[in-house]
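Lab notebook, bench 4. The sequencing result for the construct came back, and we need a structural model before the next group meeting so we can plan mutations. Quick request posted to the team channel:

Model the 3D structure of this chain.
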Amino acid sequence: MAKSPITAVNIEDRKALNVRAGETIRVWQKIKEKDKVRLQAFEGLVLAQKHGTEAGATFTVRKVVDGVGVEKIFPLYSPMIDKIEVIRRSKVRRAKLYYIREKASKEIRHNMRKMLALEPGQNTDTKIAGVDMSTAHKEAKVAPKETAAAEEVAT
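Done. Here's the predicted structure in C-alpha cell form:
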C-alpha cells in the first residue's frame, strides 16, 4: 500500500515564514496521482494574506500563465503543502494587492495596442491584421456605386 501524502505540518516553521503581500513565493504542493505523489511548484506574487497566523490562515498567490492570470488560495497550515520558499520580498504600501489584477489587464491591452499599431498616430482600434478597417469600409461602400455606374455607361 502506498504511503499517504499527508504529513504533519511544523506549525512553528509556518508561523515564522511571515508571508506578506508583495512577496514573490514558490509553493511546493503535493499532488496525488493514482498511487504516486509528486511535487508541483506554483510561483507568483502574494496578493493577500488573511487571518494572520491562526488556524484558518490563508494566502492568495497570483501568476500569469500564457497571458492568463491564475490565482490560487492556499491554507497556511495545509499538510498538502510541502514547503514554501520566499523568492523575493518587496516593500508595498497596501495589505491587499487586488488592484494588481486591473493593472495587469491594462498593461496587456497597452502591449496589444503597441503590437497592432503600424504607424504612429493611427487609431489601433480599427486595425485588424494590418488592414485599416476605417478605409476598408469606405472602399466597400464606394465600390458598388462605381461598378453600377460603369455598367450603366457600358449599356
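The first helix runs from residue 11 to 17.
Will bring this to the meeting.
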